[in-house]
Amino acid sequence: MRRSSTLLRINRKTVTRKKKFLATQARVELIELIQKLYPEGSGATDVQFDDMESFHHTKLKPLSIPLVVENNTRIILGFGVCAMPAKGLNAVKSIKKYGYRPDDRAPMWRKIFKRLRPYIDQSAAFHSDKNPIYPLALRKHFPNAEYTRSRSRRACVVGQGELKSGGFDPLFSLNHTAAMLRANINRLFRKTWCTTKRPEALYDHISLYAARHNRHIIRKLELT
Question: In angstroms, rounded to a whole number, what is the distance separating the alpha carbons of residues 212 and 155?
Fold first, then answer.
């Protein structure tokens, strides 16, 4: 954003306001694109979902990025940004410095699945890893769905942790899309100094990318 303001010779606050405006427009476009792809009476029938992880200013304040995609096409159906507690070696440091952090992942997943009900078939096939918070959130809004869970696998370096090393990946569409988010959104790089200062700004950034991502895929589908 600083570089944009420098190149365009405008105030950085102008870039911030424009980004927020464009992100709002992008979210409207996302809904329109999904409605175009799944008109009333139809819906996605093969769906994959999982959490990506980033952080808010410091790794002691991690953020979860729930992501839902259609298998095979890799259309982004839904996403969010929410707070989560630090894990591993950072947990004690995080509590000591910032206190206990809320875990908003389960409420966020319920919110996303509720939002996606018109665009996903009630008997659709869902696939995720074995995170224990997923089943309850999914069953609340898709009680008749076929739900399959796979064990998480070791990541390869080139996919920044999202693509898996060796063999068949049952969550390839989801992981490939997540790797593309990391490759195209600088604040999601594994090693970056472009850190998120406000979670809502990360949500706006993902909104801009998701609209472009879906527009590109839908255009390819129309040409085939």
Answer: 26
Give residue 116's pLDDT band: very low, low, confident or very high (50, 70, 90).
very high
What sign does the CA torsion over 161, 212, 149, 199 have?
A: positive
**How buried is 147 (Cβ within 10 angstroms: 0-12 exposed, 13-18 middle, 19+ buried)?**
middle
Q: Which candidate, 196, 69, 57, 54, places its Cα nearest to that of 126? A: 69
Integer angstrom CA distances of residue 125 from 2, 52, 93, 146, 179: 43, 21, 40, 5, 23
Helix (H, G, I), strand (E, B) or coil at 211: helix
Q: Give the global pTM.
A: 0.89
The two tokens of residue 90 are 């950072």
Taking CA atoms, 80 is separated from 41, 131, 159, in Å, by 26, 17, 21
- State the pairing for strand pair 82-83/146-150: unpaired
User: Residue 134, class by beta-carbon neighbours within 10 Å (0-12 exposed, 13-18 middle, 19+ buried)?
Assistant: buried
Measure the CA–CA gap between 151 and 120, rounded to whole angstroms.
24
Residue 40 has a pLDDT of: 75
- What stretch of H or E contains 150? strand 146-150
Tokens of 133: 């918070």
Given a contact cutoff of 8 angstroms between Cβ atoms, the answer to whether 76 and 66 are in contact is: no
